[in-house]
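Need residues for this backbone.
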């Protein structure tokens, strides 16, 4: 870090974290460049979505999805408990988890996912990701700590409203584009999921906000900004 000409990170939150742990870096040395969205993340054809759901045994169900490595900070047990509460009035709702269990200390994820309304897979083929996001009615990403957290952005690009915790970079990136939940507590999470699932006006507003902000998240834009950083560093004699 002391020798680096520039430090590039993916959010203002991450920039502040770097400065808090390594104050010698200096604010003028850190540049935030948001990551981009791949063009393939678009709403999938409804017939393809229906076929996908049938293949997964989820036809006729509304899906709350999660995709990412399963860490303790992402509150999968609380998400399961919240969906269980939601199902007391919404029996057609199911939970579809995609990700490897990397919890430490270890949680009994396998034991928590035995009910017939939960589907857990460790991974998907890369080309199937847009189908997964498009098949979800809600995408839940309940993380305490993220440097950016790109899966909710991919879900939005496929037309699916995310529910996220209102903290760290998720607050920075997704306020106004996702249903924000203050606490990783089952009752609060159930209410957030219910809003995303049933309130069409809220969903429409969040999707419209995403479309307005979408140009910020472009790999072309990120590449141009990175090139500018490199040129500035070269011009200043730092490279």
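Answer:
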């Amino acid at each position: 870090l002391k020798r680096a000409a520039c430090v590039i990170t993916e959010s203002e939150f991450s920039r502040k974290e770097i400065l808090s742990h390594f104050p010698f870096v200096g604010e003028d040395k850190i540049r935030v460049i948001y990551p981009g969205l791949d063009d393939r993340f678009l709403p999938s054809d409804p017939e393809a979505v229906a076929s996908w759901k049938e293949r997964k045994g989820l036809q006729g169900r509304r899906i709350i999805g999660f995709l990412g490595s399963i860490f303790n900070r992402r509150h999968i047990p609380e998400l399961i408990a919240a969906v269980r509460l939601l199902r007391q009035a919404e029996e057609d709702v199911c939970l579809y988890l995609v990700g490897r269990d990397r919890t430490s200390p270890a949680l009994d994820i396998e034991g928590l996912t035995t009910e017939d309304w939960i589907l857990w897979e460790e991974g998907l083929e890369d080309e199937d990701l847009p189908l997964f996001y498009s098949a979800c009615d809600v995408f839940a990403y309940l993380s305490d700590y993220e440097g950016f957290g790109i899966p909710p952005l991919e879900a939005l690009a496929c037309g699916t409203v995310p529910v996220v915790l209102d903290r760290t970079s998720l607050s920075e990136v997704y306020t106004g584009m996702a249903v924000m939940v203050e606490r990783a507590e089952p009752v609060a999470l159930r209410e957030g999921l219910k809003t995303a699932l049933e309130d069409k006006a809220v969903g429409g507003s969040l999707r419209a906000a995403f479309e307005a902000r979408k140009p910020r998240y472009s790999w072309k834009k990120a590449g141009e900004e990175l090139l500018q950083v490199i040129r500035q560093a070269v011009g200043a004699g730092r490279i």
